[in-house]
Hints:
Layout: E1 5-12, E2 15-22, H1 23-40, H2 55-65, H3 74-84, E3 91-92, H4 93-102, H5 110-120, E4 125-129, E5 135-139
Antiparallel strand pairs: 1-2, 3-5, 4-5
Amino acid sequence: MSEDKSRFKIRKGDIEIEYEGKSSEVTERYKEAFEWITTATVAPPKPEPTRKLEKKDIEEKKEDKRGGVRTSVISPAIDELIKEGFFDDFKNSSEILKELRRKTVPVSSTQPVTMALNRRVPKKLDRIKDERGRWVYRKKT
């Protein structure tokens, strides 16, 4: 007497389905599993073909990238400190940063402060190195 048994194994990527049983049942399960696995796996989207960007496209991207009108915050705050007399004696960039933060000026590091200070050096501020080798700033006399 022979047994009426069959089995199948389907593997696609990380998905694997295996079934063993009566031949009529295996055929039916195979059809269901094959249909499910072909619809369940989604191929990754094909990358768009690269094309040369036109001037119009570049301008649109620039407009999308910017969040709106940008106004300088640090420079006017430094000008205000100059008017108030904060720079009557020499101040280093760390001291200036602390004062700007105390006045709730949104500044993250000394780099933008130093850049704003250096733009004012020839006209409004003097800059020299102190005994530690750090740049210090004072109101131009």
